[in-house]
Amino acid sequence: MIINNTKREISSGVYIFISILTLSLNALLFIPLIIKGIITKQKSTPLFTAIFFSLISYYFIPPEEFDLYRHYESFEYFSLNSEPLHKLKDLYLLSLFNIGEYLNIKKEFLYATSVIIYYYIITSVLISLLKINNIRDKKLILILSFLYLFSNTLVEISGLRFTTGLAFSILFLHKYFIVKNKKISIYIYMLLAILSHFSLIIIPITILIYKLFYKLFFDKKFSIFLLFFTLLLGLFFINDLISILIINVEDITGLYIGAEAYTNGAWGVNRLDIQKYNSTGFFVEKSKLYITILISLIISILLIFSKENYLNSLSKYLILLTSISFLLTNFDTIYFRYQSLLTIITLMIITTNKINYKKLNSGSIILILLYIKTLHQFSLGFISTYLNYLSGISYIDVINNSNVISFFIYIFNF
């Protein structure tokens, strides 16, 4: 036992040394070490993986249509005038602005910080689940790792606020449902999620509903009814009611959450008309919506009728969260954000249940559906935002200067 522990410590020490060395020379050299670190479940892998992605991200120059362009513009204005150019919806971004102004550092730190938070948490949760469930199959680890790391990409994270809140939400749900840590301290993660993006208030609301009506979800018929009932309501009946509720939340709390924009404005029910999508764009957006609805519905039904998966309390919670998201199907900006949450929760469920991906069963089918969903996201992304993102990257800088030393010299104006 002592010899094995010593070997592990030496192996871990070597991994840390090589990781620091590669990230100091060129971040691209670290790519094989991400895979190695996840397979061998190295404790330091989440930190180094987060640093790797942040080093790549800070060479991105956002086009005007990206939220990040607006955040950079507002930060530079804030640094000069000590007030934001645009009204800020969340405390997270305001906190970053204040830190950046106080330390007199460059705007790119906003994106780099959000990337570090997201990838550190997501990779930590992945490695924790691999350890808890003693998963050693290298192929399965690689299959899962791809989905964990790329269900949200640097494109989505460039929005800063939601994916940061998403990461804190996933950490909370991991502690609450899987680690079974019910200490008050874990609710800090939930609070941080809400402070990062107010839409994640859905987490405490659904947790409360789940605790109050937990026993109902043991009834498979009830779960099926709930899914189809909420989907029909969301598609055909309750747009006005949802709009009123969202706007009232802003009015009652006094918090600016952009309710008008997400209900009747440029990101609301009539988004495609307001943003003047042509017939092709309209078809693409609607097909994306209906494909994600279908995949979410199939995954939920598979979980309900799979004894192994459905005994998991997180599975029951996912059914509830999916049902709530169905109520928002016509508010597609909000709906697609919640889809990111559903995807990672589903990943956590199938990781916890150690699926046999070599045989056709509910777990392997869910895994296939998650791949279809992710690849569909990529294919549509390349038509629009992904190509814009790729055009904004300074590839020469990534190849020649993507290292920790260059990063700190640039960010801190040394």
TrEMBL record:
<feature type="transmembrane region" description="Helical">
    <location>
        <begin position="109"/>
        <end position="129"/>
    </location>
</feature>
<feature type="transmembrane region" description="Helical">
    <location>
        <begin position="289"/>
        <end position="305"/>
    </location>
</feature>
<feature type="transmembrane region" description="Helical">
    <location>
        <begin position="341"/>
        <end position="357"/>
    </location>
</feature>
<feature type="transmembrane region" description="Helical">
    <location>
        <begin position="186"/>
        <end position="210"/>
    </location>
</feature>
<feature type="transmembrane region" description="Helical">
    <location>
        <begin position="12"/>
        <end position="33"/>
    </location>
</feature>
<feature type="transmembrane region" description="Helical">
    <location>
        <begin position="364"/>
        <end position="387"/>
    </location>
</feature>
<keyword id="KW-0472">Membrane</keyword>
<feature type="transmembrane region" description="Helical">
    <location>
        <begin position="222"/>
        <end position="247"/>
    </location>
</feature>
<protein>
    <submittedName>
        <fullName>Wzy</fullName>
    </submittedName>
</protein>
<feature type="transmembrane region" description="Helical">
    <location>
        <begin position="317"/>
        <end position="335"/>
    </location>
</feature>
<feature type="transmembrane region" description="Helical">
    <location>
        <begin position="393"/>
        <end position="412"/>
    </location>
</feature>
<feature type="transmembrane region" description="Helical">
    <location>
        <begin position="141"/>
        <end position="174"/>
    </location>
</feature>
<keyword id="KW-1133">Transmembrane helix</keyword>
<keyword id="KW-0812">Transmembrane</keyword>
<feature type="transmembrane region" description="Helical">
    <location>
        <begin position="45"/>
        <end position="61"/>
    </location>
</feature>
